[in-house]
Task: structure prediction
Amino acid sequence: MNNNEYKELYLNTSQLVVPRELYQRRFNDRCAQLIARNFDERIANEPKVSYRDGVYYVFDGQHTIAARKHLNGDEDLEVKCKVYFGLSAQEEALLFAQQTGYSKALSSGARLRALIAGNDRVALAFKAATEDVGIELDYDQSTGKHRLGCVRTAMVAYIRMGEARYREAMELLDTAWGGAPDSYRSANITAFTRFVELYHGEYDCQRLLTRLARVDPLTIYREGQALGLKLSGYKRYLYQVYRIYNSGKGDPLPLKF
Result:
């Protein structure tokens, strides 16, 4: 049997292992309870399981399994599963990242963590580039100094602008406010990456950092939101970095957007 095929088998939930230490997201009891309240076996998907090294690993459906157990008085029970044979742990992680099942959709952090565990080339390169400038990826958005929770915004920027420009922008962002948690809001990531894309080779790094140090890291988001419909999309945030840079003495940058 190749690893794209599966067998439908009835397994006892006591046999099933959830590999949270590798790629699975943290268990959310509230999510499982919500699934249980709205559960209908007629439309529920079978959990997807990988039989590897003598163990049945759940790579899709841990919360649905928990909901079934809850409806069974929190006792183990037999559950029909799609069981795959011959998958590596990395292949499981990649399948987990692609899941579109009945249970709660993956967060951006959970999906990225799974892609990294699955040795996805782009995800690994993005992780390395981010960590090389002193920023830690925060898959659970728990926040903290030098911790990046808006991983989707950052990864989209990485793919769009390439590694060199991405690193330049993120190093500026990390340095500007000393890694303060509010630095890494989506608006700031968008503003810095777009600014570096547009003005690379033209702006003075020290001038920008000096002027950013005078404002709160929430300024870009707040002032951008205050613009309303005067500028659309990312431009309202890009404009804030442009405005801060051009404040005070020195040759101003031209408006290019």
In short: The beta strands are 6-12, 16-17, 48-52, 55-60, 78-85, 136-137, 147-148. The chain has a mean pLDDT of 89. The two ends are 56 Å apart (CA to CA). The chain has two domains: 6-104, 121-246.
